[in-house]
Amino acid sequence: MTILILLSSCSSQPNLNEPKSQHTDLSYPEAEKRGYVVAGPSGVANVDLLENFFQDYQNKKTNKVTIARYTDEGDPIYVDLVYDGKKILFTYDNTWDAFGGGQRIRKTSCTNLGKRTGSRGDQYGTEYFLTSCKDDIGYSDEDNKEYYILFIEEVKK
C-alpha cells in the first residue's frame, strides 16, 4: 500500500513584482478636498479638472489628473491619467475595492483620449474614454478597444 502525502504552503508574502498603490483608502469628501475628480453613488465633483485635462490633451499641453470612482459599497477605484504631450499613461488601481476581486494595479499608455455626448442606457451625458492603447489591461469595451474613464450625466431641468 502506497500513501501519497502532498504538502502545500500558502504564503502571506506580497508579490514583490506587483506595483504598490500610490493612493490611500480615501473617503469621497477626502478625495474631493485633495482635488481629485470624484464620482460615485452620491454624484460627481471636480469634473472641471477632467475637462481641463481633455482641453490640455487637445492642445498638446502636459497635464495629469486623478479620478476616484466609488463603488456602491463606498470603496475607491483610482484612475490616474498623465499626459506628456504625446501619450497618456493610464493607471487603473482597484487595490482598495474590497468586493471587486483581483485587486491590483494595471497600466498602459494610450495615444487617444475621446469625448462623446449622447445616451448611455437610460441616461444622457458626456463620456470620456481612451483608445489606441499599447496593452490590453481589461478593456471596458472589448469590441471598440476602449477604456471607460468617466460618464457625467446631464441633469434634466
> What overall form do the CA principal axes indicate?
globular
How do the strands line up in the largest sheet? 2-1-3-4-5-6-7-8
Topology, number of strands: 8
- Helices and strands, in order, run as HEEHEEEEEE
- Mind summarizing the main beta sheet? 8 strands, mixed
Strand content: 35-45%
End-to-end separation in angstroms reads: 80 Å
Radius of gyration from the alpha-carbon trace, in angstroms: 19 Å
* Low-confidence segments: 1-16
User: How many DSSP H or I helices?
Assistant: 2
* Helix and strand composition category: mainly beta
Helix content: 10-25%
Mean pLDDT: 87
Secondary structure blueprint with pairings:
Elements: H1 28-33, E1 37-40, E2 43-45, H2 47-58, E3 63-70, E4 76-83, E5 88-93, E6 105-120, E7 123-133, E8 147-153
Parallel strand pairs: 1-3
Antiparallel strand pairs: 1-2, 3-4, 4-5, 5-6, 6-7, 7-8
